[in-house]
């Protein structure tokens, strides 16, 4: 690993620890409580030494009572300190975990639409399920454990040195023996479980795809194909988990082997020291008790450090995500339009999703307040992209777009997007009730307003026939409703929101003829005196629009009324003739 990579990895670890800064006082108290607990735990072997050396040989009952009292008080102190440290430890870890999760979630909300279009939902969910969970495990387990073990080992070694320097020195060759294979086994175990984590992430993504795409899998009859992919992912995960458990067992066995080898050496040397009265029997017993506990804690400490090194590599992905640049930034001091009229102007707009390809190339257009405008053209010429630019889902790379004379990048997201109402062909519904989905357009709406909006969208009739009416659960993405019903719910949202600008992607395309006519009448009401821009797939629906904008190669190829452009026999004329000569299915595929 080069130095730059090491510095980046170290930065990711420091970033993770930075969430602890807000809880410095709690951490100081936590360390104090841990010191008390570890000190008492190490005092107990000292009491055993006094019991063996002074109480038993001399039958000193008074001293025995004193030892019992000290032991009793020590246990009470240790219990209080242990309970307090556990409470503080849990409090710090949960608060820190909450802060981290909130900051990651906030980052997810701040990222531009480019992130969501480039990264599948399953991958983002896996990021939360694995990397975030790993960091939370660092707060809840590894850091507290490392502090505990480190303080215990330091205090134990001090006690051991006070008993006998030479016996304590025996730990050095034991540690050297441990370091022959110990770190290697620690790395192998940690790497194995890191692979387990990655395979679990892949398996989780397959499960998500299986659930979210169940309708398509069944429709195409490929459930077995999908199941086989999920099963393979689970088998890979299980195989790596088995390997990880094997390495973990080997690591544990090696730890115990080194501890027992050291114990054999201590017993031999200790026997010689006792015979030559260099150390008392009680002192030896106290030492051996401290040795076993210290060695166990020391190996656990090494394990904790090694595991944290591997955790850092997993944190790196989260750190990289957290430091992603935000494509569309809200202005720090946004301008405000007192009353949005809906005047839109495109000034020499250029835009491309990447540097290698420009989709919008010098687009100029003026839309008067209350004007009904249709965007037409063949696929891939930028009609949907222009909709995204109007709502600042993306920022233009050159030129600007103004709303009522104010550049939209100077407006707050709240004012800009609350002024715009979208209706797409693919309507997203939450898995809640119909009432909740309609209220999405205006969260403070009353039940009466919701019903009125549904009536205006011609949705009330079918809702009223449902067993639970407005309390009917629509299912995930509205799976319990037909396409036309979902579309009418989305239009009902629009009636509640009452935006100044309407952006419609052929809002009636998913409806039958009867419903389509009703929705057309409803849209005529809501679009009255409102700026309306429609992406038209069926050219027959835009004959009476104020302005037809034919978009070709990211530019305005033609602009005018339907009759005027048709007589000109240019781009619109060719599109109309194409639709008349093609079956409906081909037209819908060619005009989008």
Automatic annotation (TrEMBL):
Residues that span the membrane, as ranges? 27-48, 60-81, 150-181, 257-274, 280-300
Q: Where is the ABC transporter domain?
A: 344-578
Topology relative to the lipid bilayer, per the entry, is: Multi-pass membrane protein
What's this protein's name? ATP-binding cassette subfamily B protein
Q: Which Gene3D superfamilies match?
A: ABC transporter type 1, transmembrane domain (1.20.1560.10), P-loop containing nucleotide triphosphate hydrolases (3.40.50.300)
- The answer to whether UniProt assigns keyword Protein biosynthesis to this entry is no
Query: From the Swiss-Prot or TrEMBL record, what is one GO molecular function term?
Result: ATP binding
**Pfam hit, one:** ABC_membrane
Localization, UniProt: Cell membrane
Q: Where is the ABC transmembrane type-1 domain?
A: 28-310
Q: Is Nucleotide-binding found in the keyword set? A: yes
Alphabetically list the UniProt keywords. Answer: ATP-binding, Membrane, Nucleotide-binding, Transmembrane, Transmembrane helix
**SUPFAM superfamilies hit by this protein:** ABC transporter transmembrane region (SSF90123), P-loop containing nucleoside triphosphate hydrolases (SSF52540)
């Amino acid at each position: 690993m080069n130095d730059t990579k090491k510095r980046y990895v170290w930065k990711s670890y420091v970033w993770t620890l930075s969430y602890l800064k807000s809880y410095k006082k709690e951490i100081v108290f936590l360390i104090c409580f841990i010191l008390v607990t570890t000190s008492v735990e190490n005092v107990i072997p000292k009491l055993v030494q006094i019991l063996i050396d002074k109480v038993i040989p001399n039958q000193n009952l008074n001293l025995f009572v004193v030892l019992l009292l000290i032991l009793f008080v020590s246990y009470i102190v240790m219990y209080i300190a242990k309970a307090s440290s556990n409470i503080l430890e849990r409090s710090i870890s949960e608060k820190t975990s909450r802060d981290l999760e909130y900051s990651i979630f906030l980052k997810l909300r701040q990222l531009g639409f480019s992130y969501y279009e480039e990264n599948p939902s399953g991958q983002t969910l896996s990021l939360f399920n694995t990397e975030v969970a790993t960091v939370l495990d660092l707060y809840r387990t590894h850091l507290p454990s490392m502090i505990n073990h480190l303080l215990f080992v330091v205090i134990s070694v001090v006690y051991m040195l006070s008993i006998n320097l030479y016996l304590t020195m025996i730990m050095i060759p034991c540690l050297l023996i441990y370091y022959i294979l110990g770190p290697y086994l620690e790395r192998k175990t940690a790497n194995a479980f890191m692979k387990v984590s990655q395979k679990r992430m892949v398996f989780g993504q397959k499960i998500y795809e299986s659930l979210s795409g169940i309708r398509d899998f069944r429709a195409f009859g490929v459930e077995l194909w999908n199941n086989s992919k999920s099963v393979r992912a689970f088998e890979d995960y299980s195989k790596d988990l088995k390997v990880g458990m094997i390495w973990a067992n080997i690591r544990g066995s090696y730890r115990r082997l080194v501890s027992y080898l050291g114990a054999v050496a201590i017993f031999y040397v200790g026997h010689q020291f006792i015979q030559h009265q260099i150390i008392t029997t009680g002192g030896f017993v106290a030492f051996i008790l401290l040795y076993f506990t210290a060695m166990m804690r020391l190996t656990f400490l090494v394990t904790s450090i090694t595991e944290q090194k591997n955790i850092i590599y997993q944190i790196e992905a989260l750190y990289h995500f957290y430091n992603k640049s935000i494509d569309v930034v809200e202005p720090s001091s946004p301008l405000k339009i007192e009353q949005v009229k809906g005047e839109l102007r495109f000034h020499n707009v250029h835009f491309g999703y990447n540097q290698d390809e420009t989709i919008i190339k010098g687009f100029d257009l003026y839309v008067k307040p209350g004007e009904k405008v249709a965007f037409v053209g063949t696929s891939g010429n930028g009609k949907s992209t222009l909709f995204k630019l109007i709502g600042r889902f993306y920022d233009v790379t050159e030129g600007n777009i103004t709303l009522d004379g104010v550049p939209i990048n100077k407006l707050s997201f709240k004012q800009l997007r609350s002024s715009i109402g979208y209706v797409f062909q693919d309507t997203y519904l939450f898995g809640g009730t119909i009432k909740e989905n309609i209220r999405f357009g205006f969260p403070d709406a009353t039940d009466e307003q919701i019903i009125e909006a549904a009536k205006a969208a011609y949705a009330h009739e079918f809702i009223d026939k449902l067993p639970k009416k407005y309390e009917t659960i629509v299912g995930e993405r509205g799976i319990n409703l037909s396409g036309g019903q979902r579309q009418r719910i989305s239009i009902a949202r629009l009636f509640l929101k009452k935006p100044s600008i309407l952006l419609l992607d052929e809002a009636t395309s998913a409806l039958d003829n009867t419903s389509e006519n009703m929705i057309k009448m409803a849209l005529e009401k809501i679009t009255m005196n409102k700026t309306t821009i429609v992406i038209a797939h069926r050219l027959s629906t835009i004959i009476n629009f104020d302005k037809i904008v034919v978009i070709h190669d990211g530019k305005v190829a033609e602009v005018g009324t339907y009759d005027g452009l048709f007589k000109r026999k240019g781009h619109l004329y060719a599109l109309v003739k194409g639709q008349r000569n093609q079956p409906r299915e081909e037209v819908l595929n060619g005009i989008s």
